[in-house]
Amino acid sequence: MIAGLKDLDNFAVTLEFAEKIISGFSGCNNYWGQYKIHGVQFRILGALASTLKMCQDQQMSLEAEFLGKLTKVFSFRVNGDRLELDSKQGKILLVLRRTGVEDLLGKWQVISIHLPKRKAIVSVSDVLYLTFRKDFVQVSAGCNTFRGVWGLEGRILYLGPLTTTLKECEETAMVQEKALLDALNSVVGWRLAGNNLFLLRSDGGIAVSLLRSNKA
Length: 216
Hints:
The chain is of the alpha+beta class. It folds into two domains: 2-97, Beta Barrel (Lipocalin); 101-212, Beta Barrel (Lipocalin), CATH 2.40.128. The chain is 15% helix and 47% strand. Strands 9, 10, 11, 12, 13, 14, 15, 16 and 17 form a nine-stranded antiparallel β-sheet that branches. The mean pLDDT is 87.
C-alpha cells in the first residue's frame, strides 16, 4: 500500500521485491523491472515494463505519478512496517506499508477458478464468496458452506483444513463447488492487485481469482 499520493483511498498500489526484480500494481496496470540496492541506496535499472490497460482518467493520472516517483528513488529506510523511499535530495517520494492480515479481512467474490490439470479457467456466478475473519475463513460455495482456520506468514497463506455442510444440490452447482474446494486446497500464497485478490498455487499459478465485495 502507498501513502504520499493524493486520492489513493479507492486505488490500491503495491510494490513487491524479489531477488533483483521489482513488481506490483500501479493503479491500473501491473509493472515490473530490475533494481539494485547498495547499502541504503536504491535504484531501478533501466525502464519499467507494464501491461497496457486503459482505465479511468484518475487512475491513469495516479499511475503515472506513482511510476514517475518510483523511477526517481535514490535511497530508502525502514520505519516499523513502513518503507520510506527518498529522492537524491532527501525528499520523501513514497511511503509504503507492509501488507498483512488486515488487507485480506472482509468479503471477496469468487470471479474465476483455475484448473491447471485441464488447462482451464472457470468463470463462476456471483453466489460464491470467501470471507476472511480474524479467527476463521468462511466459503459460500453455492450449495454448501466451508469453514476453517487461516493465517499468513509473509507471502505464504495457510488455508484450512476446511469443514463443510453436507447439502446435495443440482449437479452443476456440485461440480462448481468441488472445483472451488480443490482449488482452495492447492493454495499456498496470495497477491493483491487493487481490489483483486489472487490465491496462488505452489507453482506460482493462480488457483482462485477474487474481487473485493461491497456486500455485507
